[in-house]
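queue> holo job accepted (LLP)
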Amino acid sequence: MATNRKSYFHYKEGELFSEEVALGQVAEEVGTPLYLYSYNSLIEGYREVSHAFRKLSPLICYSLKANGNLTLCRILATEGAGADIVSGGELYKALQAGFPPQKIVFAGPGKNEEEIEYALRENIFIFNVESEGELKLIENLSQRLNHPARISLRINPDVDAKTHRYITTGKKENKFGLDFDEAEKLYSQIKKSPLLEPVGIHFHLGSQITSLQPYLGALEKILDFLEPLKEKGLNLKYINMGGGFGISYEEGKLPLNIKDLAEKIYSLIKKTGAKLILEPGRFLVGPAGVLITQVLYKKNRGKKRFIIVDAGMNDLIRPSLYGAYHQIKKLKEPHEAYPPEVVDIVGPVCESGDFFARERKLPPITEGEYLTIMDTGAYCFSMSFTYNARPRPAEVLVKKNHWWIIRERETYEDLVEEESVPEELFFSFKDPSLSFKSRSLREKKALLAPIPFTKMQGSGNDFIVIDNRSHLIKNRPEFARRVCPRKTGIGADGVLLLEKSRVADFKMRIFNPDGSEPGMCGNGARCIARFAHLKKMVGEKCSFETLSGKIFSQVKKDGVCIRMKDPSPPHLNLEINLGDGSYTGHFLDTGVPHFVLFVPQVEKIDLPEMGSRIRYHRKFQPGGTNVDFAEIKDETVRMRTYERGVEAETLSCGTGAVATAIAANLVYTLSSPVKIKTLGGDLKVYFHKSGPHKFTEVFLEGEAEVVYEGKWEGEVS
Ligand code: LLP
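queue> job finished
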């Protein structure tokens, strides 16, 4: 018999608790409406699925669309779950939350080019392909990127899941998947393609399914289809049964009996030799969440009794959209002595469809009290929106007697954050105050407020680091020219701007004091990784975009390690003539160009003079080069760098250290990790030599620390 999973919401001494936290206390502190999730309920949901199906040891890919909150996702990723995604945005969130790409499966009938390319670059596990056109596009893009793609075809088995018609997906009149004939044809195309690998088969019948029959019926059809494919030499390794496991929303109604389902499919799956993939969403997170709302008013119209609460259909749309039933409970335990009343629980939104319960028998409710709408962990926050300009609610996680805000309530400012009013439209008014008003809030802030910056240093290279995700700084080169000078500005070797990225955790833009923008700087990259970690934008590991490609970094206690771009094949023993004689060095590009010269006594070099002459030598034109002088003593490299753009000696240079380490390996056989001493501090360069002149997995490790925080009050253009 299927039983309801243990609820993590219960009354204690007259009050509703989740785990050991009184919900009323959280509501008072955080305000309402508010979503609240129980950590242990979520974990238990995951473990229940994994235990029920343990004999098949499936890959359980949590369906992010149910609830993409990063903390909830991270909890499941930590338990070992993979992710089922349906968009580039969900891929981004899944990676942010820490799901490994090799456990991410990508479904959806309308994947676009950008999303497919993103998923290919991240090397996700499987594309669940839903049409011939999509397959062609994946093939074209994988050829263009020279990147293989693992494919499952999503079958529409034409089976009725016996659930709400809006969430039925496996009937032939639904837009999802391919029929068996189409799939047969496409599998033979995939087999012929050099970059596509046919690895599995997928189906997903719908959501909130509470009987076994649809699954068994569909599986039977799928297995019949697989038999002849096998004979044709197509042995698919994965069977993905999708999600859809129903939960109990109403007292007395049972959830899907997943134990029974697991038992019944065991022998069927086992005999195919395939591995099972599941994509549950609701079952894991639905019962783990509630929406807490406060009663604003009571009003009667004829026989009708309305309870108007502060949550609206924009916060929770399931009742309005599907007529879905959610239990509603008072935070104060009801007294049995008072008879129930029949009421409509409605929200403040200007729509008559804005309701949570209609004609519901509930204990008496008073103005100002709190109610909870139960089982709202799945498809509630993730389907919320800001209609009527209502900021979305906060989200809170409870674990035992602790609780944390895991998403702040949106603010009015958030509502206008992405908007801007084109200035030109209002020029004719010639009224400066109006023109100021017409600027977006973000622009106004930028004009008025001082800009917070963090002064950082990495091996003696110092930077002004700024969170520029909201484009506080628009004219970046001008800003760098203004703030870098040490006498009239803040003083630094460069400005690092942290900006938004669509393909990584963030983007790093770096500007030299002369306003030029190099592709990359190793010391800068370490500083910005430390900065993003300190400001809690990322965890210890992150990836970020630079003009020279994507960088991976790891923040450690006493340093930051970054993966550098694989260097270009070096041009060894390049001779240049400077008029007073010829000099031999080694030229390579480690993100930016470097010319490395080994000398007997590095401290004796007249670096400003020599550096600038080499930097402008015609052999390196038009771009010029950075110049590194290095001396090897006791297996350690001492080096000094003349930096292009700074046009002077800097205390150290990360890309220079990498270039010098590679040259030291090739010329003096120093092995990884190469220890480097710069005027600014010590660095280590790790690499893997994968060919006589080919270096991969290049890592640079060194310190990166905050010197001070400040505010720039000067002008910004
Ligand atoms: N896999 C695929 C391909 C899906 O489309 C879905 C859900 C799932 C897995 C996860 O299904 P679950 O285990 O959560 O039932 N907004 C609706 C539900 C839409 C479900 C969409 N697809 C609701 O509030 O009931």
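queue> The chain has five domains: 40-283, 289-411, 417-448, 449-564+708-712, 571-704.
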